[in-house]
Specification:
Layout: H1 2-17, H2 22-74, H3 84-96, E1 100-105, E2 110-113, H4 126-132, E3 137-141, E4 146-154, E5 176-185, H5 187-238, H6 251-301, H7 307-337, E6 346-350, H8 351-368, E7 372-377, E8 382-386, H9 387-403, E9 410-417, E10 421-428, H10 450-456, H11 462-472, E11 476-482, E12 486-494
Parallel strand pairs: 7-9
Antiparallel strand pairs: 1-2, 1-5, 3-4, 4-5, 6-8, 9-10, 10-12, 11-12
Helix pairs in contact: 2-3, 2-5, 5-6, 6-7, 7-11, 8-9, 9-11
Length: 500
């Protein structure tokens, strides 16, 4: 029970929590795609507001300072700072923007300070010096919350002749009679940013909640077809169904289902083939045994059996035993073939010599049937092959061409090669193969003419063994045939063995 509980926890983790889970990945991707832009947008809106607010406030204050600067020149404020109107304007500006205004004369002395604490003092700073050279400056200190500005107070009317021409590269502008050094508070901007930021964060939180919900829904909806595929495959695996499944929700699931259905059909074909193979093997092995039992029982029921009859029956029994032995031998050969490339023993061989040796062994069988065997070697061929398996291929094809031939017929063997493959072609003048049987001749125990095959003594495994051996060499085998006229088998094998 504990193991089942742990197994369920593990399955839940892999399905819902593991980063390998497609559902988790979809959730995280949608979450990231939604949250990152919203955070960036909040930051961008707040920063953009701050920058724009500071620019507008700076322009507004500078405009008013320039107006006051003109009043200072008109009222000759540097000679007498007793102008109540100017002082009132400066105080009003200071109060309006919660700031401080200082008027600096040409000798760098502060002649007016709205705070009233620095009047009469000398001020030397880079901004003030630059301002005396005719350059207006502004600086925003976000950390301390204020904007500092320097505005030159310019007299465009009373300028000495030598000073005409504006700012010089080495000294102050003679038109500049003084400087207005102003610091204004940005508390209003900061408070507005704080309010805007809070509202943006609330909106962002709502957006994140919505994005999480959307990401969760999408991750569930988009992976649900895969769950249906898994469930359908699980039912097939458990044996509840062996029918083709269909989940057409997504193109991806459709491709997976299509591949699985093809695999399922292939498994069905293999299962049917296996059952048929077992049935055929049972039948093929049982037939000689039945014949032997019938012959033995016939001898047992007869009291006075002649030597001639006894010898005849024993010869038939021996023939059936040989037949049984051939079937078992071929079956064992086929089983070894199923081990594929692991059983391959590749050596470099002269294929011409191998063919000559095989034909030499089979010519006595051909003479018994009065069949002429002709070998045509187009060129010398050396290839990397498994000698035993290649011998089986050549022997089976030539032997079949002899066995299923007509009397006074012929068998022609042609060996040729190019720079990649060698070909082994076996043609005959035999009984041929019907067109509707060509696709089945490589199946185990398949016979075109069962009665004729039993007379000849075939097991129905020769071509199955041959095809397996050819495929193990990464080669191919094709056949063309006309019923009643003969057949041609063409084997194509790579000169250099390609390991799988």
């Amino acid at each position: 029970m504990v193991n089942n509980y742990l197994k369920k926890i593990k399955e839940f983790y892999h399905q819902y929590l593991s980063f390998r889970s497609l559902r988790v990945r979809i959730f995280l991707i949608v979450l990231a795609v939604g949250i990152i832009p919203s955070v960036a947008m909040r930051y961008g809106i707040v920063r953009n507001y701050e920058q724009r607010a500071v620019e507008l406030r700076t322009v507004a204050v500078q405009s008013q300072l320039k107006i006051i600067a003109d009043h200072l020149i008109n009222e000759d404020y540097f000679n007498t700072n007793r102008s109540e109107v100017i002082n009132a304007e400066l105080e009003m500006l200071s109060n309006l923007y919660d700031g401080r205004v200082q008027i600096i004369s040409g000798n760098l002395r502060i002649i007016k300070d709205t705070y009233g604490i620095s009047e009469g003092k000398t001020i030397i700073s880079e901004e003030v010096i630059k301002c005396f050279m005719g350059e207006s400056l502004s600086n925003y200190d976000a950390q301390n919350g204020y904007i500092e500005m320097t505005i030159p107070i310019i007299d465009n009317q009373n300028v000495s002749a030598e000073g005409t021409g504006g700012t010089t590269a080495t000294g102050p502008d003679p038109r500049v009679k003084g400087v207005m050094l102003t610091s204004i508070s940005t508390d209003y901007i900061t408070e507005t940013m704080s309010i805007l930021s809070r509202k943006a964060m609330i909106l962002e939180a709502l957006m994140i909640m919505a994005i999480v919900a959307i990401a969760l829904i999408l991750s569930i909806v988009l992976t649900r077809p895969f769950e249906r595929v898994t469930k359908a495959i699980g039912e097939v695996k458990a044996g509840y169904s062996n029918e083709s499944i269909s989940v057409p929700d997504l193109a991806e699931t459709e491709h997976i289902v299509e591949a699985f259905n093809q695999l399922l059909q292939r498994m069905k074909v293999l299962d049917d083939s296996r059952q048929e193979f077992v049935s055929n093997v049972s039948h093929e092995l049982k037939t000689p045994l039945t014949s032997m039992k019938v012959l033995a029982d016939s001898l047992l029921v007869q009291e006075d059996v002649s030597v001639e009859l006894y010898q005849e029956f024993m010869e038939d029994i021996v023939s059936e035993i040989d037949r049984e032995n051939r079937i078992i031998t071929d079956l064992l050969t086929l089983v070894k073939m199923d081990k594929k490339a692991s059983a391959m023993n590749i050596v470099s061989l002269n294929i011409n010599d191998m063919t000559e040796l095989i034909l030499k062994r089979l010519r006595p069988l051909a003479r018994k049937k009065d069949v002429e065997v002709v070998f045509e070697s187009v060129r010398s061929v050396t290839a990397e092959v498994d000698e035993v398996k290649m011998t089986l291929v050549m022997s089976n094809l030539v032997e079949n061409a002899i066995k299923y031939n007509k009397e006074h017929g012929w068998v022609k063997v042609v060996l040729d090669a190019d720079h990649q493959y060698f070909t082994f072609e076996v043609s005959d003048s035999g009984i041929g193969i019907p067109e509707d049987s060509l696709a089945q001749i490589y199946e185990r125990f398949y016979r075109v003419d069962k009665s004729h095959s039993r007379e000849i003594g075939g097991t129905g495994l020769g071509l199955a063994i041959t095809k397996n051996a050819v495929l193990m060499h990464r080669g191919s085998i094709t056949v063309t045939s006309t019923e009643g006229e003969g057949s041609t088998f063409l084997v194509k094998i790579p000169l250099n063995y390609i390991a799988g």
